[in-house]
Amino acid sequence: MALLIVFLLFSAFPSLIFSIDIPIILPTKNVTVTGFTKLQLPVASTGSLAFDLLNEGPYTGTTDGRILKYISLIKSFQNFAYTSVNRTNAFCDGTTDIDKSPICGFPTGLGYNYISQKLYACDVAIGLTDVGPFGGLATTLVPTKNGVPYKLLLGLDVSTDGTVYFTDASTRYGPKEVNQSILTGDATGRLLKYDPITKNVTILLSKLAGAVGVASNFDASFLLVSEFTGRRIQKYWLKGEKAGTSEIFLTFPGNPNKIKRNQDGDFWIALNIPTNNSGVAPQGVKVSPCGQILATVDLSKEYNDNRRITVVQEQTGKLYVAGLNITFVGQYNIVKV
Ligand SMILES: *[C@@H]1O[C@H](CO)[C@@H](O)[C@H](O)[C@H]1NC(C)=O
Ligand SMILES: *[C@@H]1O[C@H](CO)[C@@H](O)[C@H](O)[C@H]1NC(C)=O
Ligand SMILES: *[C@@H]1O[C@H](CO)[C@@H](O)[C@H](O)[C@H]1NC(C)=O
Ligand SMILES: *[C@@H]1O[C@H](CO)[C@@H](O)[C@H](O)[C@H]1NC(C)=O
Ligand SMILES: *[C@@H]1O[C@H](CO)[C@@H](O)[C@H](O)[C@H]1NC(C)=O
Ligand SMILES: *[C@@H]1O[C@H](CO)[C@@H](O)[C@H](O)[C@H]1NC(C)=O
């Protein structure tokens, strides 16, 4: 039933739809990762990650509607927050059933506001939410009920000026219709902006082919938005001469998923490249703000059972990897070559 899983994990059909030959750009530098550790979760992740002001975390959303925080002192995840007012532990704990999401919640995208110290989450069933530094029940900022106004909220980022950017992967297909979305090459996804002062939502870009991830740059002058089915990332200008316009930033021989900015201002993209035996080769791709591929990291040794990854995030010298329906967050040490 959990077809949302398929959307984030699936990459065979898009190669049929978009069978253009895209050159693979080789990195100028390679990054080696060592010391793989599984940070075990009590329930499957939704493939979302964030860290807070004190570099604590990771935080991750779970398929049973929780947001968990990793406490390094005790080396385990603890309950931090939840998105749905009607959620009960008895009904929800441990579920991977998307049908329960209207009651339990299903937080898919996380982003931290370093000024207000609020953690923002988009949830496919609940809408756009935020929660303070002590967690608990998140406040619903923009509700979505029965897929109105949003069908498939997946990507989220909070820019350094506090504006919240998020994506609706499709305006036609919900979490249980993801196959149709991919098979039809659906391009009805949108890039959205939430202004926390006016509480207004604005549409920045529409007609996106599977808008699953978004990240702003360090001075909030542009956004990157990934198109899973479209196999590319677009750059949307927020400031300057080109403000309000977009251009192709990168194209890929596979499906890009979430994008996360690191502390140097570069970006990490989770990429799943389809392989011959209908599996995938998961990679972390590091790019500069100009679109230069700085490094690629092959993650297929640790993610070798055709699991697709949805997010790769660099934080204080470590690389964290998560995927939908995966019951751990992977942690690596980064060795710069
Ligand atoms: C990085 O790795 C790729 C693939 O293994 C290789 O082709 C490329 O030459 C390497 N780049 C550098 C700068 O070492
Ligand atoms: C919570 O449950 C109540 C009672 O069934 C319902 O009226 C309300 O709409 C629900 N709230 C949300 C946000 O779904
Ligand atoms: C969706 O696609 C997956 C992967 O090909 C397949 O296993 C599943 O049966 C499909 N679901 C539907 C409802 O077509
Ligand atoms: C908020 O959005 C509404 C409807 O789109 C518009 O009428 C209003 O002027 C906006 N307010 C601000 C402060 O932008
Ligand atoms: C994939 O299959 C094609 C055709 O069978 C073959 O030419 C190619 O070498 C294969 N690629 C890999 C990476 O195995
Ligand atoms: C998600 O994981 C659970 C537990 O490992 C498994 O039973 C279920 O089939 C998975 N769902 C999908 C769609 O992969």
From TrEMBL:
<keyword id="KW-0325">Glycoprotein</keyword>
<feature type="signal peptide">
    <location>
        <begin position="1"/>
        <end position="19"/>
    </location>
</feature>
<protein>
    <recommendedName>
        <fullName>Strictosidine synthase conserved region domain-containing protein</fullName>
    </recommendedName>
</protein>
<keyword id="KW-0732">Signal</keyword>
<dbReference type="GO" id="GO:0005773">
    <property type="term" value="C:vacuole"/>
</dbReference>
<feature type="domain" description="Strictosidine synthase conserved region">
    <location>
        <begin position="156"/>
        <end position="241"/>
    </location>
</feature>
<dbReference type="InterPro" id="IPR011042">
    <property type="entry name" value="6-blade_b-propeller_TolB-like"/>
</dbReference>
<dbReference type="Pfam" id="PF03088">
    <property type="entry name" value="Str_synth"/>
</dbReference>
<keyword id="KW-0926">Vacuole</keyword>
<dbReference type="InterPro" id="IPR018119">
    <property type="entry name" value="Strictosidine_synth_cons-reg"/>
</dbReference>
<comment type="similarity">
    <text>Belongs to the strictosidine synthase family.</text>
</comment>
